[in-house]
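User: Before I run my own analysis I want an independent prediction to cross-check against. Here's the chain; please return only the structure tokens and, at the end, one sentence I can use as a sanity check.
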Amino acid sequence: MPKMIQLAHSPDADDIFMYFAIKFGWVDTKDYEFTNIGLDIETLNVEAMKGTYDVSAISFGMYPLIKEEYALLRTAVSFGEGYGPKLIRRKDKKLKRNFKVALSGKYTTNAMLFRIYYPDARPVYMDFLEIEEAVVSGKVDAGVLIHESILDFDESLEVEKEIWDIWVELAGKDLPLPLGGMAIRRSLPLNRAIDIENILIDGVKVANEKKEELCAKLEKDNLVRISSDMLKKYLDMYASDESVELSQLQLKALDTLYKIGFEHGLWDTPIKTEDYLIPKEYKALRNS
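Assistant: Structure tokens:
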């Protein structure tokens, strides 16, 4: 009897890419059967706070709020390297201190960094697919674009500030910008959590190894919102060999993110990321 695991991810191209090698049967899932749920990242953040899904994509910036209920996984991670979400405005618009801004969700990493940097701005939260039009139409003064929308937006708009530049100013170091990853419910037995993490690691590895084939299949089956050329460009940014397993540099970046959040009063205690991962010592002992 297969063990059913709910795996929730966003409909964003890099999430789909990193999961669908499993969906297409290219990875040995042992005695597990994964049911995938596709929801926008802010909905996933909110559902994670309710403990809804066994495994879920989340924004790194909200993880401290669920650290007691979920462990962080080492795989399917997205970081920016000199790029990331963009604060955009109309070219004919000058922003005041208390400008009205559209954000993709209260708990996203970009919203965390934005609110620290622009404390007087007035956020309005909406689906990320609606942000560009809200700025073009003047419903808001500016908006933060995420996902594929950073690659191509209306010619009447221009970038006011890169979230990458905010990150560099706040972090004080040249570290990759942590954006999103995966979390697993702590109520699952540890041996099961280890199995699931390893299966997901294999899935991201296989996806990268078969990138051309997988991209063609995703586009053919209408599983992504963008064309093949733009898909490859986007995946090179957010779903690559750097997404397979957290590196020491990425861990340092996460520790820095959580230090910034602690110093700005977003959570009560400092957090060291390594303490919230599935312990590798147990994996080694189990496999010895």
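Sanity check: The longest helix spans residues 190-209.
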